[in-house]
Structure prediction request, 167 residues.
Amino acid sequence: MLVRRLIARLLDWLLVLVVAWPLVHEPVLVVLCAAVYDALLLRLNTLGKVLTGLRVVGPASGLNLRRALARTLVTTALPGAGVVLVLTGLGWREPALMAGLGWQQPWVVVGEHVGPGSAGWLSSLLLVGGFVLLVLSVVEALDLRGTRTWHDRKAGTAVVRLKVAAR
Prediction:
């Protein structure tokens, strides 16, 4: 079940990346698109879950918006923020969003890049913070008990395998 869940998550992220990246060119917005995709389709089913034969189910009262947002925050926004921080810490910057808003990023001063020596501690801090978020995401996803991981237990959801109809 864990492998199916991982494959479903990777397929969903790949789909969002292929669709959103050419439109926005900003990692933060791609993560936001992934979170919106996950939250909106949680009551139905994401493409990754359909292809792997999985479905997220809530309690008998149904899967309300609060539960969907809580689950999406942990399953999508947390690892997404980790990836963005790691990319930023490694020096990869795509300033499209901030430049479009007229905000200069802290490492750019009047159009000149700050030398690596003066901002090295910030890059290291971002890199470590990103890795911490990614490790937390992996640890909580590996805490699988039956059909429920830690985020499923906190959101009151479970992932079940759909039965294939006999031909």
Summary: The first helix runs from residue 2 to 24. The mean pLDDT is 78.
